[in-house]
Each structure stands twice: as C-alpha cells, then as structure tokens.
C-alpha cells in the first residue's frame, strides 16, 4: 500500500498570490476614486454612457476588492476544519464578478431603450473629460493586472472587467465628442448599448470557467479516458479505479486514484512512475495515489459512488 502527493502547484500558487496583493490594492484605490468621479459627472450631465461606464467601473472596484480579499484569505494557514484551505474563495469571487457584470449590462440595455425614443440633452465636454480621466485610470490598472491575469482566474476576472471598462471609456469619449460636435444625442445610448453588448460574451466565458471548477469537472485539456489508459499501461499496474481529476483553484490541478497491481509488484516503483507520468505528461503535481494488490481492490468495487 502506498500514498504519494506533490506540493509544487500549491507552493507556486501561494507565492504568485503574494505578488498580486500590492498590485490589487493599488488598482482598488485608483478604480474607487474614478468610479466616484464618473458616477457624479454622469448623474450631473444625464449621460447614460458615462453612467454605464461608471457601473462597469463599480464592478471593477468590487471585482478587484473581492479578488484582493479572496487571495488574502487563500494565503491564510489551513485550519483543521478547512483541509483544502480557502482556495475556492478565489473562484467564488470570480463567479460573483460575472454575476455583477451580467446585472450591469442588463440594466444599461433596459435604460437605453427609453433613451432611444427620447434622447435627453447631454453635456459633451464634461462627459469627454471624465471619460478621458477614466481611460487613464483603466490603462494604469490594466498594466498592473496584465501579468496576473494569465495565472489566476480571480485576477483574470478583475482584468476582464478593466479591459471592458477601458474600451467603454473610449466609447464614451467618442460619444461625448459626437454629442458636443454635432448635437446628436442618440450617440449616448448607442455607446451605452455597445459597451453592454461587448462585455456579455467575456462575462459568460468567465462564469463558465468558474462553474467548471466549482462542479469539479476535469480541467480543460485533460483527457480523463487517456489518463486512465496511461496509468493502466504502467509496468505492474493491472487496473485503475476511483480516478478523480479536478481543479482546486487557478493553476492547482489535483488528482487521486487507486492503482491495482500484481501481488509481486514493487509498490514504491509504481508510485514513483505514476507521479512522474502525471507531472510530466499532464502537469498535475498534486496527486494522491493508492497502490494496492488485487484483493484490496475488491472493497473499492463495492462502493456505490
């Protein structure tokens, strides 16, 4: 009987999360300041596009705030009642961000319908100046979060929100210019709708990724059937059962399996070979493996789940 596991991915994830904290804190402060500015000016100028951008900026503020809180919580030591730590907080925060984005996009689309019928007069110059300031803030935050977005689902959620808001600020800037130069106030709801529609597919992708992790689906790119066959093809392994592969949080793929062997097998050798296979071929560094003779496997086959 043997057990094995690796801690490379967990250690790497904790180390990486530490690098994000200061960048997320700086991003949070910048976005909060410019959200307040955009909301105030949008209300005073009756600009739905600016209010739309402020709404997206609010989700940025909440998204970065939740990302910061989730990463901080995930770095806390594992306690006796939370044997997996708080890594899933990151995924829950990403899902919450997606729900917020869906809500904001829906509200803007609803409000835009009335504006198309009776577009109010919009003050173009304050709208343009505020959008320009918001664009500058988004570009700074965009640069701060860009690297982390490739490694963390949670940071990626905040990054996508900032990306959408950056494009939204450009749209608001153009809408303000058109309103100011030509007096065509339909530009305001058109920009608002465009921003709402732009963010929806990206929001859906983020929500799908978060849900995939929460329901413990196999990681994308991992063929479980082939993985089982590769483990069964190892020397001395006669059968593989109770195989589970899932993602704990971004960059932390986990596996567990029982490997049935011939009674004369070298269990230590089988364990090492299986760990090497999972790490090198499937990039799964945290695996709990049980190597057992055929008589022990009978008990596992009696389980109903």
From TrEMBL:
Keywords: Ion transport, Membrane, Transmembrane, Transmembrane helix, Transport. Residues 219-293 form the Cation efflux protein cytoplasmic domain. The keyword Mitochondrion does not apply. One of its GO terms (molecular function) is zinc ion transmembrane transporter activity. The chain crosses the membrane at residues 24-51, 57-74, 86-110, 122-145, 157-178, 184-204. Its main location: membrane. InterPro entries: Cation_efflux, Cation_efflux_CTD, Cation_efflux_CTD_sf, Cation_efflux_TM, Cation_efflux_TMD_sf, CDF/SLC30A. It is found in: Membrane. Pfam families: Cation_efflux (PF01545), ZT_dimer (PF16916). The keyword Nucleotide-binding does not apply. It is a multi-pass membrane protein. GO terms for cellular component: plasma membrane. Residues 25-215 form the Cation efflux protein transmembrane domain. Belongs to the cation diffusion facilitator (CDF) transporter (TC 2.A.4) family. SLC30A subfamily. This is Cation diffusion facilitator family transporter.
């Amino acid at each position: 009987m043997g057990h094995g596991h690796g801690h490379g991915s967990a250690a790497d994830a904790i180390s990486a999360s530490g690098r994000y904290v200061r960048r997320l804190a700086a991003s949070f402060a910048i976005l909060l300041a410019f959200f307040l500015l955009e909301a105030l000016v949008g209300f005073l100028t009756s600009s739905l596009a600016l209010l739309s951008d402020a709404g997206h900026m609010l989700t940025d503020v909440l998204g970065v705030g939740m990302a910061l809180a989730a990463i901080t919580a995930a770095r806390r030591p594992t306690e006796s009642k939370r044997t997996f730590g708080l890594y899933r907080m990151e995924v829950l925060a990403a899902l919450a961000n997606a729900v917020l984005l869906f809500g904001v996009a829906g509200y803007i689309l609803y409000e835009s319908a009335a504006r198309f019928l009776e577009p109010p007069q919009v003050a173009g110059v304050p709208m343009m100046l505020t959008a320009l300031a918001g664009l500058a803030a988004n570009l700074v935050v965009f640069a701060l979060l860009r690297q982390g977005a490739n490694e963390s689902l949670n940071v990626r959620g905040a990054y996508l929100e900032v990306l959408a808001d950056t494009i939204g600020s450009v749209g608001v800037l153009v809408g303000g210019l058109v309103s100011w130069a030509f007096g065509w106030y339909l530009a305001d709801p058109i920009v608002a709708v465009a921003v709402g529609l732009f963010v929806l597919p990206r929001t859906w992708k983020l929500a799908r990724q978060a849900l995939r992790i929460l329901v413990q689906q196999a990681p994308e790119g991992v063929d479980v059937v082939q993985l089982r066959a590769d483990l069964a093809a190892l020397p001395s392994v006669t059968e593989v059962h109770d195989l589970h592969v899932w993602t704990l949080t971004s960059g932390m793929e986990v596996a567990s399996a029982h490997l049935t062997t011939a009674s004369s097998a070298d269990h230590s050798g089988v364990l090492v070979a299986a760990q090497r296979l999972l790490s090198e071929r499937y990039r799964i560094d945290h695996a709990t493996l049980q190597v057992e003779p055929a008589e022990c496997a009978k008990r596992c086959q009696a389980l109903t789940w």
